[in-house]
Design brief:
Layout lengths: L2 E2 L9 H13 E3 L5 E6 L2 H11 L5 E4 L9 E7 L1 H10 L19 H12 E7 L6 E9 L2 H14 L6 E6 L2 E6 L1 H11 L9 H13 L4
Parallel strand pairs: 1-5
Antiparallel strand pairs: 2-3, 3-5, 4-5, 6-7, 7-9, 8-9
Helix pairs in contact: 1-4
């Protein structure tokens, strides 16, 4: 059973905002009890969440989608303080297709968005059909169109990035995609100097482009 902790600090901070972003994209909360569940293929992501929340809950394994192979890691908590906080923010049970606007302060939006992208986004490139050069891309996926529309608007107001487009990604998902120039600007917004909480493999992709001169 998921471990219990009497107190989790729910005052907004960079670390809490990051975890909220991960829960919004890669997590779920219970219908009737104060369960919080985060599932990911990246154990590192769950270890970071555990450290950010200052809890010692065990990280388990689970299968998904009818498979019997337990290739996903899972962190489960029972905590009424965090559960109530998430409800107030706007994260609700069975949120996948109905998630919308969340109450995230501007000051912590970059941390929140980095958590979203680490949870269910991608940082990479595609080859331009004419120049054959790699084009930097940042994407965020969600089953909720309203959530991505809200994210796009918040990116425009907080990061001053007016680009990006939303399209179908198949299997009931939508994708918010930023073009090369906007992705460069967004990467600088997501990883300001002093950032310590991030999924290493995605940050490494950003560093590769920085080193190649594609960013900055």
């Amino acid at each position: 059973m998921a471990g219990m902790r009497k107190y989790i600090d729910t005052n907004w901070s960079p670390h809490l905002a990051y975890v909220v972003g991960i829960i919004a994209t890669d997590g779920s909360i219970g219908q009737k009890r104060a369960y919080i569940n985060i599932t990911s293929k990246d154990r590192e992501l769950l270890e970071d969440c555990r450290a950010a929340l200052n809890v010692q809950n065990k990280i388990g394994r689970k299968a998904r989608g009818g498979s019997t192979e337990k290739k996903y890691f899972v962190l489960q908590l029972i905590n009424i303080t965090l559960y109530t906080f998430l409800l107030k923010v706007g994260i609700v049970p069975a949120k996948s297709k109905i998630l919308g606007k969340l109450l995230v302060p501007d000051k912590f939006f970059s941390d929140f968005l980095r958590g979203c992208i680490d949870g269910d986004g991608s940082i990479g490139s595609f080859t331009h059909p004419e120049s054959r050069l790699p084009q930097f891309r940042i994407r965020l996926y969600s089953a909720s169109l309203d959530f991505l529309v809200w994210i796009k608007k918040r990116v425009e107001t907080t990061a001053k990035i007016k680009g990006g487009w939303i399209c179908s990604a198949g299997k009931g998902l939508h994708a918010l995609t930023f073009g090369k120039r906007d992705s460069v600007q967004l990467a600088e917004f997501l990883y300001p100097k002093g950032t310590t909480l991030f999924l290493k493999r995605k940050y490494d992709r950003v560093k590769q482009f920085w080193a190649s001169g594609e960013i900055g």
